[in-house]
Amino acid sequence: MNDKVYRSELTPLDFLERAASIFPRKTAVIHGRRRYTYSELLERSHRLTNGLRSAGLGEHDRVAFLAPNIPAMLEAHYGVPAAGCVLVAINTRLSSQEIGYILEHSGSKKLFVDRELVPLLEPLDTTRLDVIEIADTGSLEDDPYERFLQSASPEPPPRVLADEEESISMNYTSGTTGRPKGVVYSHRGAYLNALGEVLATTLTADSVYLWTLPMFHCNGWCFTWAVTAVGGTHVCLRHIDADSVWDLFELEGITHYNGAPTVQIMLVNSDRARRLDREVTVTIAGAPPSPTLLATLRELNFKPVHVYGLTETYGPTTVTEWHEEWEGLSLDEQATWMATQGQGYVTSDLVRVVDEEGKDIARDGETMGEVVMRGNIVMKEYHDDPEATTEAFRHGWFHSGDLAVWHPDGYVELRDRAKDIIISGGENISTIEVEQAVARHPAVLECAVIAIPHEKWGERPKAFVTLKPGAAATQEEIIEHCRDDMAHFKCPDAVEFGDLPKTSTGKVQKYVLREREWAGRDRRVN
Amino acid sequence: MNDKVYRSELTPLDFLERAASIFPRKTAVIHGRRRYTYSELLERSHRLTNGLRSAGLGEHDRVAFLAPNIPAMLEAHYGVPAAGCVLVAINTRLSSQEIGYILEHSGSKKLFVDRELVPLLEPLDTTRLDVIEIADTGSLEDDPYERFLQSASPEPPPRVLADEEESISMNYTSGTTGRPKGVVYSHRGAYLNALGEVLATTLTADSVYLWTLPMFHCNGWCFTWAVTAVGGTHVCLRHIDADSVWDLFELEGITHYNGAPTVQIMLVNSDRARRLDREVTVTIAGAPPSPTLLATLRELNFKPVHVYGLTETYGPTTVTEWHEEWEGLSLDEQATWMATQGQGYVTSDLVRVVDEEGKDIARDGETMGEVVMRGNIVMKEYHDDPEATTEAFRHGWFHSGDLAVWHPDGYVELRDRAKDIIISGGENISTIEVEQAVARHPAVLECAVIAIPHEKWGERPKAFVTLKPGAAATQEEIIEHCRDDMAHFKCPDAVEFGDLPKTSTGKVQKYVLREREWAGRDRRVN
């Protein structure tokens, strides 16, 4: 700890301490019939911290959570880092194999797992891990997690954070190499991005935030901390379905929620969809929302905020701020502007669009380049992968892999992706990982996987396959084979057989395949 | 500059760069008929920076401004620190002598002075200083400041900030010693407090902020930077009078303004006062607002936000957040709670109330202690005064000199002042300074000055004087004598002649005088 009177290390953990001091009796967490005040949330966080410390965990130790959006998962975002540990929140949609890889690669020493997800661990050797089950009943009788909290001291634990640049969490992303990479966040970055989210989405003490967005996605885009910063209310949600969400809008007076366009499409197309009495702010990222979707949301009294970012930027880091000049445009033109990615948050640096040498491209709305970021809202590193970190940080900027044009007024607009990534329903899928799975089928000679546009999911993977001479396989066989060793959402929707287009040197020309599948569209991301 | 991809030095100067990039054509500044867009404000700031650099000024050089709330004063908050210089914004209500002392003590090398205030410089030797006059016409023809800008390059100057803890400004305060002290702010603290102000007062891109609060007060409580952070509009104001303010509410669609209760009282008692069509957020500090004032503000559709702080805490650093539990209370009880000082901003540490050994007092709403602060929203130091800095920072916390009770829910409530400070209309007056001025009158043997409650100004100084044997003087003569060498607002309103109450060791018992003057009141601050 520094000894300067005029310096505190920036950490989002302070948000909870403040909220519990200012709003001790206010409802911090709602989960069905369960309610926790801010004072209770702080005490539960203290117990989690003290429990971890008593179990011998301390500075820089990794603690994994595999759970949906339940109170325990929110508590993890305070209790784990307050012990000096690094939170590893694992995507619950992954396969057992992928979860095993992340537990191993992150070096997690302890795992908290939701009872519903325990079957995912069955194929894994978890003897090395200390596993604690979360029954999510909130009751001592039948919930091992509650007993873990109960056995620990409720007293404020000693502060252990010595430097705001220390790691707070590690979020695994499907990188371009096919193996998940552990994106490391710092306390400073998490603090500043949480405030950036507050400002971009106008969260206040009156906000009631519905957890439609998974907390395992970039720590819930840092909203796990942002909602607490303003003393708002977190409304948990174990499973997302349109009915529950529409019920909660009314029942709990929801003011904010977040999600990829997929989630929005599900909601506005539900039987229950109706114009809301109060405006609800919906923050959209993961893919540009269509003009139709934006118009529908407005009709139903949602206020759409479009943001953009990556796991490597703590989730969203740019926002498409409204321009007065757009008032005079047609709804379609307005929506087209709103679907651009805008510019950096108040707490982010401005993003740039660069050529291959890292130089600014022309701000003409036509030239294409790669979006690059720098500053407090960029990850520290890929855990235990200095090579990938160096590559991503070339020219001193983080390379997003997203290709965009740069408008004269500074706004960026994504057009294509340099990285082999498919974004489907807000989840990243590495085309290389899918290709490797397809190629493991004995009949496959070679293959190429690209994203194709999809109305509901934005993008879905499609495989182009050349079979071995004399071998045979059907589309169904290839897909079934993939489902055996990969999360189901990553498996191709379609398989097309035939020769692959190649350069004279034998390199597969994916752009030829993409051009065919995306014909008639302005951009190659959806 | 650091070379980490994941770290930018925090500085409020980035707010302007971002606003100019995102809202280039939006109105940033309104001053009568003059309008500057964000793109123009940035260019004018660049010119100011380049002009200063061309004039040989650079890192850590002090540049003083003596001006009302005009565009040049706002530009100073960006252009001066961007040159690596430290801004010294001087209180225009001070006497020539006091201004001379500040120019000398701060070591200012250059002074920009508003034409109206040039007479204040006449008694001073300014040969050492490079003085540039601001005619505030915005026209090259007759405005030396405009010519200074015009002669400089409009190009973005090189970034010179190497460390966010470097100094950005120096704000002189009437300390307890009678001599103004230069309170030094850092880029990091200014950035974080500006965001704290945004959150406490809910500033957004739609905000139109009226500059009733002097920018020379704690850099306008950091609103010089906060309004720009969200891309809001600054509405300048050369002189405050109720008519202009009521005109501007309507004409420019004001959404926010700040001020001491004195300013509010002037506004709500004006002939023009009427219920506003839209809610206007009014942020009040400098003295606790009375229940009557709070009720009147609400009737007129003002949303009062009560904040508290000192020059040493970048202006306001605590806010009285509304509690749901208060809904059931009477208006009077609500107002009583709203008049407490609340707790730290999101970006501040929580404040504590301590005894003389620096230990927490009981949180019982009765025991009195001193309010102390720590963290990013505490000044770096008193310029060139290590002794006063050490004293203020004893036990590792900044000592406010304000005495308060601590409520069980964490809120603090000021009751008295340990420091010999009178706060009159939001301006600090050192009782010691007034005593020294009174004592310089040849007929005075000794004297004591205390604050007495005043309906309009909150507090005013009153002098208790013992005359030399055989000497004579009237109240009017004493006051007139004070006006000769001190700013007029600091001079006593009343003088009472007689013996002073003393301890057995001969120390003046000011509390005896205070008890008499404040009889029948709950607290000794107003």
What would the keywords be for this entry?
alpha/beta; 526 residues; Rossmann fold; homodimer; 25 strands; 7-stranded mixed beta sheet; GMP Synthetase, Chain A, domain 3; 9-stranded mixed beta sheet
Helices and strands in order:
Two copies of one chain form a homodimer.
Chain A: H1 13-22, E1 27-31, E2 34-37, H2 38-54, E3 62-66, H3 71-82, E4 86-89, H4 96-106, E5 108-114, E6 130-134, H5 144-150, E7 167-174, E8 180-186, H6 187-201, E9 208-210, H7 218-221, H8 223-229, E10 233-235, H9 242-251, E11 256-259, H10 261-268, E12 280-284, H11 291-299, E13 302-310, E14 315-319, H12 331-338, E15 343-344, E16 352-354, E17 368-373, E18 381-382, H13 386-392, E19 398-406, E20 412-417, E21 421-424, E22 427-430, H14 431-439, E23 444-454, E24 458-467, H15 475-485, E25 494-497, H16 510-517
Parallel strand pairs in A: 1-10, 3-4, 3-5, 4-7, 5-6, 9-10, 9-11, 11-12, 12-13, 24-25
Antiparallel strand pairs in A: 1-2, 7-8, 8-18, 13-14, 14-15, 16-17, 17-19, 19-20, 21-22, 23-24
The share of residues in extended strands of chain A comes to 25-35%
pLDDT < 50 stretches of chain A: none
End-to-end distance of chain A: 46 Å
Largest sheet strand order of chain A: 2-1-10-9-11-12-13-14-15
CATH hierarchy: architecture of the largest domain in chain A: 3-Layer(aba) Sandwich
Task: Give a written overview of the molecule.
The structure is a homodimer of 526-residue chains. Chain A is an alpha/beta fold and 526 residues long. The first copy, chain A, folds into two domains: 13-319, ANL, N-terminal domain (Rossmann fold, 3-Layer(aba) Sandwich); 429-517, ANL, C-terminal domain (GMP Synthetase, Chain A, domain 3), CATH 3.30.300. Chain A has 16 helices and 25 strands. In chain A, strands 2-1-10-9-11-12-13-14-15 form a nine-stranded mixed beta sheet, sandwiched between helices. In chain A, strands 6-5-3-4-7-8-18 form a seven-stranded mixed beta sheet, with helices on both faces. In chain A, β1 (27-31) and β2 form a beta hairpin. In chain A, α6 packs across α8 and α11 (291-299) crosses α12 (331-338). The model of chain A has no long low-confidence stretch (mean pLDDT 92). Chains A and B meet through α1, α6 and β15 of A and α1, α6 and β15 of B.
